[in-house]
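ok so I'm stuck.
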Amino acid sequence: MRTVINLFPRPDKTASEQVLYFGIHYLRHVLVITQFVAVCVFFYRFRVDQEIVDLKEKIYQKDSIVKQTESLIASVEELDLKIKNAKQVLGIQSKLDGNFSYILSKISDKVVINSVEIEGLSVKLEGSAQTAESIRAFNDVIKSENKYKKVVLSNIVRDAEAFKFSMTLEDFK
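replied:
not stuck anymore, here's the structure
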């Protein structure tokens, strides 16, 4: 095998030769890398576009579910409001029942109640008794058990037949 050794300096290349040399040796690598990056970006863009389409589809599905259940939610809220109102009415009715039952349980056979007026947690009684002692005993029983914040006995009038009275009981506990 024969080796050739050239000791002469290489001749200087012209500008066009240098551009041609750069294009042949280095520019092709730059172009290949650029094309590879472009293809990667192209496929990445496809993936991102597909994710956007999938997300829009999910939003559309959830929006349709919300639209379909709007009437159901409205009827459930309406029903919930009715249940709350019913519980409130039953609570008030229970308090009124307890209030009325308590008064009936404390009335002795010597006291006759002519009228009962219940407003909220307050009660106005009008009645009569043969003796003032019966009225005082009824008043003392009501006051001693402390079921009302305020007990007012008023308008005790002696009639030909009996003692008539008015009693106001406020704020049943």
